[in-house]
Amino acid sequence: MPTSPLPPASDELDALLRLIDDDTPEVRRWVADRFADSTGDLSEWLATRPHKLDHHERELLTTMLAPPRRAALAREWVVPTGGAKAMREDWDSFEALLRALSDFLHDGITLRQPLSDALDLLAEEATEEGVYSENELRGFLFESKRLVGNRADYYDPRNSDLAWAISEGKSNPLGLCLIYILLARRLDLEVQGINFPGHFLCRFYEDGLAYIVDCFDGGRLHPQDILLANADELTSSQKQQLRQTTDPGTIMIRLLNNLIGSLQNAGRSEDAGLIESLRSTLGQ
To answer: What is the rounded CA–CA span in Å between residue 217 and residue 176?
Structure first.
């Protein structure tokens, strides 16, 4: 039975980097094949090397590291039996899928913290700053501008990579809300997701009153009863959606749909096709 090639060791990686922009077809194929045998993430190794990649080299290496990251995502994508409906309140499975997506969307060369570590450290920072309520967490994340709406690159696929979003301090409405929700869970707080069409939102309760948070708009706070009473432009269906709380399975489907669209818009058809196949495992 054939065995998979061993990943390139450090000495071979040095040689591969020296040949990464070689125009000889045979050399280029060999270099690409050997990088494809790697884990797809060389960021920690690259941080130890004296040679700093230029823009062209970074683009070439990111492209060559994409196949093993696709393979890793397909391998690590484990959905509960029953798909999205079975996830319900299974936030552990939900976060595991987010981690797999984050590793896949990573460029493989930029040094950064894995998603769960980044969330843990952000939660520790919030605790050190005396965050003990959902509203204080809102201020800590959004009023402080630790996280802002990525208006310049709203459709960037990296907005669905929460580790990138935490590192860069920006994301789309769904990405920002998910960081808020996952941090709240680490702090034993409750922040709910609102699957409003076109603009994901959050909700928390304080003193028996519901508040809706627009994370993309600097964490802007809306008392739910006042918002619903004065929003004449909203249909009855939209008002009902604002009252409802969404579950992890539904959120994951929305995130994958967003990601498919952004990947297609970026011309990454192979990656978009992979995400489409993963979406099908959720049963919707």
So the answer is: 10
pLDDT in tens, 34-79: 998 898 999 999 999 888 889 999 999 999 999 999 999 999 999 9
Which DSSP category does 157 fall into? Answer: G
Which pairs from 90-97 meet CB under 8 Å and 24+ separation?
90/248, 91/182, 91/185, 91/248, 93/248, 94/248, 94/249, 94/251, 94/252, 95/182, 97/252
Question: Rounded CA gap, 115 and 122, in Å?
Answer: 11
Are the CB atoms for 150 and 159 separated by under 8 Å?
A: yes
Tell me the residue type at 63: T
Measure the CA–CA gap between 131 and 277, rounded to whole angstroms. 40
Do 193 and 251 contact (CB within 8 A), yes or no? yes
Distances (CA, A) of 82 to 2, 77, 141, 194: 35, 14, 34, 23
pLDDT at 2: 45
8 A C-beta contact, residue 195 and residue 241: yes
Beta strands in the chain (DSSP E): 148-149, 170-171, 192-194, 201-206, 209-214, 220-223
Q: Residues 85, 196, 114, CA angle at the centre, nearest 5°?
A: 65
Q: In whole angstroms, give the CA distance from residue 204 to residue 258.
A: 25
The model's pLDDT over 101-145, given as tens digits with 9 standing for 90+, comes to 999 999 999 999 999 999 999 999 999 999 999 999 999 999 999
pLDDT in tens, 40-51: 999 999 999 888
Query: Residue 189: which residues within 8 A CB-CB, separation 6 or more?
Result: 133, 134, 137, 204
Beta carbons within 10 angstroms of residue 233's beta carbon: 6
- Integer-rounded Cα Rg, in Å, for the chain is 21
Q: Which amino acid is at 108?
A: G
Distance in angstroms (rounded) separating the CA atoms of residues 214 and 202: 7
| pLDDT for 284 | 63
